[in-house]
Amino acid sequence: MAIDFSVDGRRAVVVGAARSGIAAAELLVRRGARVVLTETRPTLADADRLRAAGIDLELGGHTAKTVDSADLIVTSPGVVTNQPLFAAARARGVDVIGELELASRWVRGPIIAITGTKGKSTTTTLIGRMVQADGRPVLVGGNIGVPLSAQVDASTEDTVHVVEVSSFQLESTTTFRPWMSLWLNVADDHLDRHASVDEYASAKARIFANQRPEDWAVVNADDPVVMARSEGIAPTRVLFSPSGRLDEGFVVDGEWIVRTSGSRSTALIPVSAVELTGAHMLGNVVAAAAVADTAGVTPRAMTQALAGFRGLEHVMEPAGIVRGIRFVNDSKATNVEAARRSIESFDAGVVALIGGRFKGGNLRELRDALAARGRAVIAIGEAAPLVHEALHDVLPVIAASSMREAVTRGFEAADAGGVVLLAPACASFDWFSDYAERGRAFKEEVEALRKRER
Fold it and tell me: Which end of the chain has fewer beta carbons closer than 10 Å to its terminal beta carbon, N or C?
């Protein structure tokens, strides 16, 4: 899958020193480039190690002089690429690409790329487990775990790369070509970065842009935007339906996940093998099965991969039980659609912790789910006033000024047998560095509450 691309002797500027930016800088210097890594933060924990590797650092801001001197510019996903300094570089004929695009040019094995608003990480992990259970060499990463740039040196023609890709990564691709693409769904998200939902969906749709007729595109037949955006694409389109309404494709039929073709169906995975919480999680397994079956993975390997898999940290993660009240950590539900699905995973008695840094969407879309299942909402973070405005006439909305207070108020508002659910529908960057830190703080406060209530 690698293309003819050399950076030997070129001056490469990597913009953004988060995880993927560091991996890109290290890859570039190993490939012979003269690398400058520029970062807005004034200090960097890895500074000494990076300098020892031959990478020049520019900390405290991205200067026009550094960018102007580049033969190649590589951006981290968090960097907005429609800035004037990048436009000027493009006008000079300089390539401005993302870390995903850079790494994909050197990856030797086939790429399975997964995108969507909700479910990417769980589905990516599941596909990786299924391919591995089938006995194939596999590396899982991208927007989850290890950046693709950190996997290039280990890539062989037989290595299957299962890669989670975000809209931020896809919008800066030019030659990125997955052997198999999977688009799970699309809903309002990242509207603090994308100008509109249409622009967001267009970025997602770039996953198909360079695929060829011999490639595959697995798409959600229940999502009208995904279906419309995948009409007329070059790769062979394969459908899956979480709702189970397909004559041709992958669905749940009774107690089995099956591949249907007209009046015939082939049983792949027993539903009883799925140990994940929530109907939307079963949909993720259907999507993973569609990819795995198309890739030639056996049903036995798919089922084996599910054994003991109860989900990822911060994704519908059980966080403990205190006096009969369950606590569930879904900190990764950072948009409204994800929070809605999280709430709908329970029948009744939900006290939902909602809020953080709002990044677009309509919080009123949570009203029906909460009216049917909710007992109260604990409003947290910068978005607390927006949460109150959207939901206060549906059920009680209680403000909390810290995670400790949120967990305590949630516990007090819950009935025995109920659930206190962290489903924030917002980013975490008001109180925390990322969703993982927020999820850990939630779990720590649940544990502290448990000790107080013994």
Answer: C
